[in-house]
Structure formats: C-alpha cells, structure tokens
Amino acid sequence: MNLYEQLIRKEESLSLVGLGYVGMPIAHAFAKKGINVIGFDLNKEKIELYKSGIDPTNEVGNEEIKNTKIHFTADEIELKKAKFHIVAVPTPVNNDHTPDLTPVIGASEIIGRNMVKGSIVVYESTVYPGCTEDVCIPILEKESGLKCGKDFKVGYSPERINPGDKVHRLENIHKIVSGIDQESLDIIKAVYDIVIEVGTHAVSNLRTAEAIKVVENSQRDINIAFMNELAMVFDRMQIDTNEVVDGMNTKWNALGFRPGLVGGHCIGVDPYYFTYEAEKLGYHSQIILNGRIVNDHMGAYIADVALRKMIKAGQAPKNSKVVILGLTFKENCPDTRNSKVDDIIKQLNRYGIEPIVVDPWANERDSMHEYGVKLTELKEVKDADCVIVAVAHDEFKKMSIDDLKKLYRNVPDEEKVIVDVKGLYKVEDLKKSGLQWWRL
Fold first, then answer.
1. Annotated catalytic residue, options 131, 266, 333, 386
2. 333 is catalytic
3. Reading across the β-sheet that carries 322-325, which strands appear in turn?
4. For residue 135, what is the DSSP state?
5. H/E element, 151
6. What confidence tens digit (pLDDT) does each residue in 50-99 have?
7. Mean pLDDT of the chain
8. What is the pTM of this model?
9. Does residue 218 fall inside a structural domain?
10. C-alpha to C-alpha distance for 416 and 315, rounded to whole angstroms
C-alpha cells in the first residue's frame, strides 16, 4: 500500500507548512475531501485566528474555517504525525533583488527535524530552477539523517493560486506536478488529483517544474511592461491607452494585457529568481530585467503625473491634500506584500506630501508594519485636492464621479485632480466632470 492509499484510508496525514494565501486554500481543499490535514504555521496569532474561525487571508472564508477539520498548530512536533508534507511559504527578494530563501530554508529545517521514513515532501514555493535539489534536499537530509530517494522522496508542484480571484480557484486550475523519480511522481500526481478537478500535468523533473512557474510569471511581467511603456508614450501622444487596447483586443490573437502597477508576491518577484540563476550560469537577461525596470518605475511615474496635474490645477503640491484609494497589491484582496502603491507614496513623500490612504481590504497593522501607513476610512475623507484611484476594489468601482467629488474641498472642479490608475472611469465622463484628470 503506497502513501496515496494510506491518505485516502486516513491511515496517514498530510501537512501544510505555511498557511497564507497559498497554503490555506490547499489545506482546506484536502480537508474537504476527507484527508487528515495538519495545518502548520510559525505565526501563533494566525493559528489562533484560524482556530477561532477567522480567515485572515479571506481566501477560504470564516464559515468554511469554522467548519473545517484541519488540525491547526504552531508546534512543529505535530508534523511528526504526517507523512506527506506540502511547503507553501513565501519566497521574497532581498533589497538587491536577489532571492531571499530564508522562509523556504526554515521550512525545510523544520520538516527535516520532524520527518519520518517513507515521507514525501512537495515544495510549492516559487524558486529558481535547481533550488529544490541544490538547497532544500540537502537541508532535509542533514536535519533528518535520512537519505533522499531511499528514505524519503521530494517533489515540486508550483502554486498557481490567484488571491482574490473567485473564478480561478485551486480546484479548476491545472496543476504542474513533478517528483525525483517515477514512484514519487505517481504518488504526488495521485494525491493532487484528489483536489484538482481539471487534472494535473506531470513533467519529467523538478527543474522543469520550477522553470514553468518563474517563466509563466516572467511572461506576464514582460507583457505588462510593454503595455506600461506604451502608456507612457501614448500619454505624450495624447492617445488613450485603454481605447487602443480595446481596439487591439478585437483581433483574435491579442493577448489582452493592460498597463498597471505590478506588485505582489509572484509577478513582481519571480523574474528576479529566474535571472538570478541565469546570471550564475553566465547569461545576463536582455529582456526580463528591462521589463522589471519599467514596471518598478510606474509608481514614481504615476506620482509625478499627479504632481504635474496639481500644478496645472493651480495647486501648491507641498500644501495639497492627496488621497490614495487602495494599498493592497491587487483588488479585492487583503494582501499588501510588495504593493507598488508604496512607490507612489514614497515619490509623493519626496515632494513633501504625506498622502491619506484608504483601503477597506488592507489590514491596519500590516499596513503600518510594512509601509508605515496609517489607514483612513473613506467616510472620514474630506477637503482633498487630488485623488489617486490606485486599486480597483469593488467599493471604489461603485463610486461615481459625483461620489468622488464629495471627497474634495470646496473649490471649482478644474482645481480638483483625479488620477485614475485603473481606468475605472470612461474618458467621456472624465471630460464632462470638469476635473483635471488623467488615466493610465
């Protein structure tokens, strides 16, 4: 009887190491299918929230968390009770854009200390090709005293979860799976097939699976960088970018990308993992890193546009009140990690402007801890000179231009500035508003 069959029969347990936006939905999905699941996270406060039926990620929902059979714990000893381990910890970058493997190294050490013979460890965290074999497996062997391939097996299955997306969920996204040998691949594939309704796609080795993840996100990053560059050029040409994209998308082979801020824990990070390993092998990226430069510049560019519009409106920017709607890295999601809205804030700070930030989705403590930003409720906003719509939360999408006007001070409309980063408002409506307006 193999490990898959033991999991099905509840004779063995599955552990999920890292219960964030990626790990929690995976743990929940397996638990719903009747698998014994141990949910482990070092963050004791997060574990207590889950135990009390609160989902801080908002990916599963409080009601589902209340009813789940997951055994939540911050005690690593509990991992000894599991034989199939899934690692879903963050893999950020350092300030110099090199990979920060601290979380994945720590997770490997914890699992290694508590791993028993016959275990399988699957990494979902995004890493560069070769990292699992060159970094993670040696740690597992050192901490456990066991030999990979003989005493335990390892696989790699990159996460593809899209936080905040209620359509593309874990169950209906094809899953890439790999293992160090055919035996481990067969078991890993069978285990994931329990929860992946549309099926899994097996690849020949771990490095290929690792490459798939960093390349699919690098592709998106490059395409968005192209659109961002076009947007900056079109701005000088006085051409509306969104109208160009709408027209372009009438062709069957158009890709549908639009300009915008590129942040978060995936698209804005993964290209650096890929180019890091490429440079170690003597190849310097000609396209990928240039795309990153363009996208990393967009926050400052948007702030500069706002400044120019304020000057055009007759305002003294240093004495102006700027309101930013949105802080999270994407709409309808509480995740503030690597949010490029922070780049807008920092650029405004350089001009002596301390913007007011409104975000009904962001966590107040996370916002203060990560960015030093004190959030303000929308109902408290008044006397604004400039409003920057940075994130397309549903709460902001519902606001008409007349609703927006209520946020400004009592001056003629032509002295009020709106910067529509997400293109929420139609050009004709912005023109009719009388506001000083700009949209990406």
1. 266
2. no
3. 356-358, 322-325, 386-389, 417-420, 436-439
4. I
5. none
6. 999 999 999 999 999 999 999 999 999 999 999 999 999 999 999 999 99
7. 95
8. 0.93
9. no
10. 9
